[in-house]
Amino acid sequence: MTCSQPATPARNVRERRKPRFRLIARLEPLEGRALLTASGVTFYTPPLTDLLKAARNRQSILAAGFNRMVGSLRTQIESQVNLAAYPAVPTGEVVRVVDQEVAGFEAASRRYFAGPAPGLNRLLQLQGQSLRYEIRTAQVESNDGLPVVGLAAGATLSPYLGPSISTFNVYAFNSRSGAAAEFQQSAFLSVQELALSRKLWPRGTPPEEYLIRSLQAQTGLNTMIHTMENPGSVYYAAGNPFRTPGPGANAAAAAVVTSMARAFKFDMQLATTQQPRIHRVVTNATARLVRRVNAAQSSGNFLGILQGAASQFDAALVGRRGLFGPKGAFGRLVIQPPEVPNPLAVDYANTFAELQYTQELTATPTVFYRYVGSSTNSPQGVFLTPTKFQTGSQAVAALAIDQSWFPPPNTAAYMVTVTLPASTRNYVGLAGPFYGGIFRRNPNPAQYPGGAIQVVVNSQDRSINYSTPQKTGT
After folding, report:
1. What end-to-end distance do the CA atoms of the chain give, in Å?
2. Residue 218 shares a structural domain with residue 110
3. Does a structural domain hold residue 64?
4. Which of 284, 357, 440, 457 could form an S-S bond across to 204 if both were Cys, CB 3.0 to 4.6 Å?
5. Mean pLDDT of 103-126
6. Last residue within a domain, chosen from 333, 367, 387
7. 156 shares a domain with 72
8. Do the domain assignments include residue 36?
9. Max alpha carbon distance in the chain (Å)?
10. How confident is residue 1, by pLDDT bands cut at 50, 70 and 90?
11. Exposed/middle/buried for residue 328 (C-beta within 10 Å: 0-12, 13-18, 19+)
């Protein structure tokens, strides 16, 4: 994979519907010595002249270079394949585009930065690897008929991540089209999160974000274990290799775990170049996990070995004395998720400020509100609030509704009245703020401060009554 020659400096462009700067590099005209691959996908290097000049003058280009290259990667991936399209673009096409764009991105990074800015080059290589394996993990899970449990799983599973972590059962899709659509959403959101607004930053990542990412990895492992324990009884029945225990199921499980572990490792390594202890523990824990699971494929006790490897992984990272656990070196600096009878999956807990919420039961029929972007949106949903906002913009800010979420964005232009009957389980806390940024965390999430009361419910509970959407403020 090759790349085109950089020209003039890029411009910062504020994208109309984004709450933060999205760095879009002006692409150069295709030169006569066309650098397209055989299948027509390439990465075009954004203008780098100003950055290379600064590097030669011994000025730091770490943040500017990372932002520009990663912003360009995201833009080019989205221009090659419409990740938001329905019916879904074939999963193989998405993976092909990402693989080839990332290969060109990595080659360009080595070519221009390995000499003058080796630290930047290393970060860019890790960025490429984390995105590549995140998409591949989603593809493997989708092809095997599993729910997609990746970075963006909280948005793609309805209503919760998995039975071993979640309070409620995973909604069971009954067709391969459901798996394809789920992959599509996960792919889109992974590109958004890894190449537009990371949750783990090369600089300034708070300790709680390491805990959250590790809990997400734990959820993926537990979902895989649950699948192996209950062959054919969960998720997509058609085409699921786990319906029949044996070498085929073992190999499929090992492939999922390996890809998942590598995506986790590269994502964490990118954010821990200044945290050698975290870097070392994560690298060792993922290496042990992958080694044990792959060595056990032909074993008659594959499930037991997988369970043991997952327990060892958990103990190193999120167990009581694990690095991010309650008594761990970094975990004791973090407010841990609450101890409630039926805890939420981490992706839902993470929407509450400081991961804090309470588990409650309604004493009487209780009215809440849900905000959606259009009158044609489904009124059902997980997130509610007791607050009746007068405008959509008020709801967006107070509930921290990210406008870069799966398109079209939820502008909260319409309100749904939701009635929970007595004895309905729900989870209550404050909506957490939304932080953006690619290289480092935005210090002030002024557009998405959160702070409103947020309620999470099981949207598949048929006893909950949802009205038709009405204009917000009416």
Report:
1. 56
2. yes
3. yes
4. 440
5. 96
6. 333
7. yes
8. no
9. 72
10. very low
11. buried
- Beta carbons within 10 angstroms of residue 120's beta carbon: 24
Q: Which domain holds residue 438?
A: 352-471
How far is Cα 362 from Cα 283, in angstroms, rounded to an integer? 45
Reported as a pLDDT band with limits 50, 70 and 90, residue 445 is confident
Least confident of 186-195, 221-230, 306-315: 186-195
Contact 103, 148 (CB under 8 A): no
Angle in degrees, CA 301, 304, 307, rounded to 5: 150
Q: What is the pLDDT of residue 35?
A: 32
Same domain, yes or no, for 232 and 304?
A: yes
Mean pLDDT score of the chain, rounded to an integer? Answer: 81
Q: Which residue do the tokens 């009878």 mark?
A: 341
The radius of gyration of the chain from alpha carbons, rounded to an integer in Å, stands at 22
Q: What is the mean pLDDT of residues 71-97?
A: 76
Render pLDDT for 251-301 as a digit per residue (tens, 0 to 9).
999 999 999 999 999 999 999 999 999 999 999 999 999 999 999 999 999
What's residue 307's pLDDT? Answer: 97
Cβ atoms of residues 129 and 140 within 8 Å: no
Query: Across the strands, what pairs with 370?
Result: 416
Q: What is the pLDDT of residues 345-381, one digit of tens each?
A: 888 999 999 999 999 999 999 999 999 999 998 899 9
Question: What residue type is 318 in one-letter code?
Answer: V
The pLDDT of residue 11 is: 33
Is residue 399 within 8 Å of 386, Cβ to Cβ? no
Number of domain units in the chain: 2
Q: Is residue 275 located within the same domain as residue 360?
A: no
Q: Are residues 150 and 208 in the same domain?
A: yes
Name the residue among 200, 199, 183 with its Cα closest to residue 81.
183
Count Cα neighbours of 85 within 13 Å in the Cβ-side half-sphere: 13
Kindly state whether residues 326 and 419 are assigned to the same domain: no
314 and 361 part of one domain:
no
**What predicted TM-score, i.e. pTM, was given to this entire model?**
0.82
Edge-first strand order for the sheet with 425-430 is 358-361, 425-430, 453-456, 383-384
Residue 339 covered by a domain: no
Query: In this structure, are 447 and 310 located in the same domain?
Result: no
Q: Domain boundary at 333, 367, 386, which?
A: 333
